[in-house]
Design brief:
The chain has about 100 residues and is of the alpha+beta class. The protein is built from 4 helices and 4 strands. The chain has a 4-stranded mixed β-sheet with strand order 3-2-1-4. Helix 1 runs antiparallel to helix 3.
Length: about 100
């Protein structure tokens, strides 16, 4: 599979995950997968609502969804999950180079 095909399919599937989960506000890509297409994994930043109940369960549910998607697309996802408040503080080294996927 080409990088372009994987990216289009991946983005479609991520949008589906976003639609199913009202606590997931935005999804961004970053890292070598989005810079060059030659990477061992795909780094994603998931931004969730500040007031989402049971953040631990939400994290576990999202991790499971992306694990299943990764198996389906043969991509290892490396997830970072931040609340809106955490996201606004720009804690990631590559925060200024985020690629918007959803939101």
């Amino acid at each position: 599979m080409s990088f372009g095909f994987i990216t289009k399919k991946m983005m479609k599937e991520i949008r589906s995950i976003h639609t199913k989960n009202s606590n997931l506000l935005r999804v961004y890509g970053f890292g070598s997968f989005f810079r060059s297409g030659h990477a061992n994994d795909c780094d994603l930043l998931l931004v969730v609502k500040n007031d989402a109940s049971n953040l631990g369960k939400l994290h576990a549910d999202l991790s499971k969804e992306f694990l299943e998607l990764g198996l389906k697309l043969s991509i290892d996802f490396d997830l970072t999950v931040l609340t809106e408040r955490e996201h606004k503080s720009s804690p990631l080294k590559e925060h200024d180079r985020l690629v918007s996927i959803v939101g």
